[in-house]
């Protein structure tokens, strides 16, 4: 944990930073090489974010996580 900058290093030194969305305090993984930003559905709901349906052309899309597993997209915020 880097108290000076508020960063927490976990899992092979992946940097995380404290953040808040509409007052909900969260921890975010910093990934400067990511092609898109994602948030778990439960986390989005806790933060009060509105989740809308995926556009038809993206409805069947899946993402590959850093650990090699595949996940469906629940929607967009």
Distinctive features:
8% helix, 77 residues, Peptidase A2 domain-containing protein, 1 helix, flat, Peptidase_aspartic_dom_sf, mainly beta, 5 strands, two-stranded antiparallel ribbon
Quick overview:
The protein has 77 residues and is mainly beta. The protein contains 1 helix and 5 strands, in the order βββαββ.
Q: Which SSEs are present, and which pair or pack?
A:
Blueprint: E1 8-10, E2 14-21, E3 24-29, H1 41-46, E4 62-64, E5 70-72
Antiparallel strand pairs: 1-2, 2-3, 4-5
What does this structure look like?
InterPro entries: Peptidase_aspartic_dom_sf. This is Peptidase A2 domain-containing protein. It comes from Decorospora gaudefroyi. This protein is mainly beta. The protein has one domain. It is built from 1 helix and 5 strands; from the N terminus they run E-E-E-H-E-E. The protein has one helix at residues 41-46, and strands at 8-10, 14-21, 24-29, 62-64, 70-72. A 3-stranded antiparallel β-sheet has the order 1-2-3, with no helix packed on it. A two-stranded antiparallel sheet has the order 4-5. Strand 2 (14-21) and strand 3 form a beta hairpin. The longest helix is centred in the middle third of the chain and has 6 residues, at 41-46. The radius of gyration is 14 Å and the shape is flat. The N and C termini lie far apart (30 Å). The model has no long low-confidence stretch (mean pLDDT 83).
């Amino acid at each position: 944990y880097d108290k000076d900058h508020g960063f927490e290093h976990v899992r092979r030194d992946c940097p995380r930073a404290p953040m808040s969305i509409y007052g909900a305090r969260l921890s975010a993984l910093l990934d400067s090489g990511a092609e898109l930003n994602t948030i778990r559905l439960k986390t989005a709901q806790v933060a009060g974010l509105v989740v809308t349906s995926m556009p038809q052309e993206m409805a069947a899309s899946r993402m590959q996580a850093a650990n090699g597993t595949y996940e469906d997209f629940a929607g967009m915020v």
